[in-house]
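Students often ask what a holo structure prediction actually looks like on paper. The answer is less mysterious than it sounds. You provide the chain, you provide the ligand, and the output is a string of discrete structure tokens encoding the 3D arrangement of the protein together with LCS.
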Amino acid sequence: MNITECGFNTKLIHGGEIEDQFKSATTPIYQTSTFAFDNADEGAKCFNGESAGYIYTRIGNPTINALEKQLAALENGYGGIAVSSGMAAVNTVYLTLLSSGDHIVSTDAIYGPARSIMENQLIRFGIQSTYINTTNIDVVKNALKPNTKLLYIETPANPTMDITDIAACAKLAHENGILLVVDNTFCSPYLQNPLNLGADIVFHSMTKSINGHADVVAGIIIAKEKNIYTKLRNMMIGLGCNMDPHQAYLVMRGLKTLSIRIERAQQNAQQVAAYLEEHPKVAWIKYPGLKSHPQHDIAEHQMKGSGSMISFGLKGGFEAAKVLMNNLHLALLAVSLGGVETLIQHPASMTHAKVSKEGKIKAGITDDLIRLSVGIEDLNDIIADLENGLRQV
Ligand code: LCS
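The corresponding structure tokens follow.
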């Protein structure tokens, strides 16, 4: 059976399998740093590309490659590059595609460290950046400069839940000779496939829903074309931000249940969002599955479901948010997202603390914004926990 022609769920279960003499039902963990050559000539051929044999785990490893092939198939790309974290994916993309004197245009509300490394560190190497509201394609168009090389979007955006039209950005980028990269972490390949909408590169923090069990930090980059894939892989090898084989095994283990975890979490999230929207102490809420979301129509068009992330604010502002967060007993007060457990956090003082005050205001990361990652617990228990917390406010 050709796995590449199978459906999404079959790819989740069988897409990571590799040939194994013992016919193991799960992908073996090749926990080795190096691989022996048959002879000196074979070693030289591995290095000059005449032989496809494995050399050294930073360059490639069968367990890691199994996961890379699986993700490339799920995102419909040419190839995947597994890395040690989502931030390793972000930095590999930046360093591969941007040189001194280049410019990047990006969604303003992206994961905080992905923005602060650009504004505080890569600026030292002469890379310029403009952070804007990418929900408005005219704003994106106006931000492009002759030296813009990369359009970087995150949709839904962390933590504002703003939704950017991927196909419109791909069209604009390509008309201007620019590459489009999409951080697809909030959706996973189950809910959104940016390469199918015209993006050139998609990446994920697999720490989130792809692994899904809050026990691994990991990232993956998938390129649509071979030449970009090769450049990204060479940069990853040079940077040394490769994944570890055991880490790859754990991600493949979590990945098998991606569809059913997401289905369950987003069913809960839709009900939690409806509950919060009606609550008298809630000032505002943003969830793609609510008609009140400003980009609800784009979400319906480009996402297969609304996901498990909700942002909201209370009428009592940050002080009220603190009371709520301190009075939840089921939801963990913790950063990260997309796992089986419900998590709550305060972006302005936590995940996005290093983004400048001005940057946060412009991006809509207000002091009252609370971010909820809805898990797969019983809905009644999640709502009872929120009800109890909100009563203390
Ligand atoms: N991209 C997005 C959209 C993220 O949410 C994160 C992490 C990253 C990239 C970086 O991935 P990592 O290196 O952590 O695997 N987001 C986090 C968050 O919102 N809370 O804690 C981590």
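Residues 300 and 306 are 8 Å apart (CA to CA).
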